[in-house]
Task: structure prediction
Amino acid sequence: MSSIRKPAAESAPHMASQRGLHRRRFLQLGLAAGGAVLGARYAFAAPGATDARFVFIILRGALDGLSAVPPVGDPDYARLREQLAIGVPGTADGALALNAQFGLHPGLPFVHEAFTAREALVFHALATPYRERSHFDGQDVLESGLSRPHATPIGWLNRAVAALPAGAAHGAQLGVALGQNVPLVLRGPAPIASWSPSKLPAIDDDTLQRIADRYVNDPLLSQRLADALATDRVAAEATASSAASAPMTAGESGVMRASTIPAAGAAPTAGMPAQAPGRYLEVVSAAAGFLKREDGPAVAVFDTTGWDTHFNEGGAQGQLRQRLGALDAALRIFKETLGDTWSRTVVLVATEFGRTAAANGTRGTDHGTGAAALLLGGAINGGRVVVDWPGLSARALYQGRDLRATMDLRSVIKSVLRDHLRISARTLDAQVFPDGGIPYAADLIRS
Amino acid sequence: MTIVAAAAIAANRFGLGARPGDLAAIGEDPRGWLRAQLAGGAPLLAAAVLPSTQQILSGAEPIVRERTQARQAGQTSADPAAALSLAMRLPQYLRPIYVNDVQARLRSALRTDRPFAERMVHFWSNHFAVSVDKFALLGIAGSFEREAIRPHVMGSFRDMLLAVETHPAMLLYLDNQQSVGPDSMLAQRAARRGRTLGLNENLAREILELHTLGVDGGYTQADVTGFAKVLTGWSIGGGQGQFANGMTGTFQFRPLVHEPGAQTVVRKHYAEADQAQATAVLRDLAVAPATARHIASKLACHFIADDPPAAAIEHIARAFEGSGGYLPAVYAALIDSPQAWSGATVKYKTPQDYLFSLARGLTLPPESEPRILAAFELLGQRQFAPGSPAGWPDRASDWDGASALMKRIELSDAVAQKLADQRDAMQLAPELLGGALTAATRESVARAASPAQALTLLLTAPEFLRR
Result:
């Protein structure tokens, strides 16, 4: 080893632009040397493969739908919710009006604007087929799309991606997970990228090439490395090109990073770690940067946690308000960064199940059943609350405690996949959601 | 399998990663090396100068009180700058405690001569996960591991379960401290004043689902509600208002909020009074066959494969049942499972596995501790911060994302750049990987263009990314 020459350039700091160049240069090397392994995975998709964009924001921990979308017109709502109840529209800190029956939590002003602009649909009293109350099984069903937990290691969105014509034809990554790892909903045979901001210095091409060579006989690692390189290249270009439209700063390692944009109306209360408002923004800006590219991914998944509000949930103000405020701010930035692409985009916001109809004994709510969900985007035929409201009377509640589910969340998803991503009903019924008897929700997408 | 490969399995799959010299010391009896670690008592932290939960929470009390008084006196709205500095005092007090604890944990992982015992500490700490994602846990996630987990890792599951569920950290994390029986004296008193107090079923559900029986362990929503009633009164001393009595930072049973009367939990009637009622339920849950199967499945997943063979689970579960949950007997069954010794590397390392093994393999010096701790965050596994009470996941698909792999590669490279002058990758490769070292990796390291590159190639080798 002592005879080995140490290249002097190796320890030089890498600048942002160099990182992209390094990766691109490596890609050429890769094509020359390890092309058989790495070939054909460098772009997300062939340009023009699909225009439609779909984003799934998972709210892990069970969002309280009765607070996010308060049924202010229901005669039992205020009584059940006690101090958690959101006031009727027009009162101080009251709900943002949707119609006579429903409002939005006052922490969701952007969603309300989108609803008013007919770019948002609000769903209520819906659920996956799961009827127990474990977060982890509930999330498994939400992501697998089947009726039982742990029925498959493949997510419904991966099956949908596999059905996109461009995905099958080009072996391109049509999906990206915004995080280091891929959540179940995107896992499966269709290649999926994952991306998260890096704070580490970039690595030189020669070392990367050697690592790639070492992984040649390791299918998992060679696939992952190729995916990472492709995504990094797109990320470098996307963040560079969106620098003009959204405020970005170069981080210490030279990777482009979104600056923290304070969200209006979501200031952290004293004593809480000051993390809530800005924490989604970097990832959301990057996601928008990916999706607006012509060769960008068709679908993206963004995971959020912290919705499990058993204790001191708060009503119009408080813990849940902070979370909703951060989500709302992220959606606003997402739309602004997307620019024109917003008109071709659908965002689904959904959770594993709802929470108890009544407040529990500790100013929070426990695990429930019927939930609320949102669809947003320029492609949405919006401005409606889509619900078959079962009511909150003692007799109407599921098992005497939860909002009853009157709609299958998969009806909404199926409809979006058919009418927006243009996946055939036949494929959807046979492969993506093979459980029979799930109808398509009507008229969700602008025709 | 060669003896050398078995030594590597003992050090890397069962332990926390081989240090130079470890494989030679393990030699020809890797099973004996592991069994020897079952003796020697509880794997406590060597330097026990860290504060207890009681001390930590007692120290926080005056800070919280001062803030509350300032708020009530309207001072916070009058002077935002003063309000902010007051609000920052609690995090400023708690954060160094958290850092000291994770540093002590790291030091123990790097220096212990009983790395299998230490891995079991991590396993149980993750099984009974609490998270500093919840701010109230910031100071006491570490003391929870020291007080409720470590003393029982070589004892019985029942004792660990009781220590965990009575620990302030778990009671706070799963919101039981203010759960009130609907027919308790306090609830009745509140009702007369027009206030409703009642149950919070979070702890009851997660004990059944995550800590003991498992999600398919045969309980219903009625069992969750019944058990939540049984658990009312399990709380923490100190606090404010109607929960003010008792010694701060210690378990406190509050008879006034306990739901009176007998309850049924998983087909059994519990007529005990007060605190003894939940203790009785926990004692039964600790030895239930479903619990044995649940624990055995998690152990097999951790040591054998993401989807372990049923026979291995059965073997471990029988040892659990046969010993009444005596953990060294359970570990012995695991060590005896032939499936645990198959394949040179079968489990994809979590970021924690990866960083502990990297730091041990390179014998990183104490001054690099802050950087190692920062690396946990970079790789997505900040210490004591799992995203949910289920703890960190334990399967490859949860950790093998493309972006996650690139971060390991970048981190390895950064470490290699710093250490290339002091560590020889060619010498280290067999020391760290033993019989798991492949010809392909040996060749790739040998042909490297620089010592730093050689080290990066070793640290990113497929057999170093797995255990």
About this structure: Confidence is low (pLDDT under 50) at residues 1-43, 167-171, 243-276 of chain A.
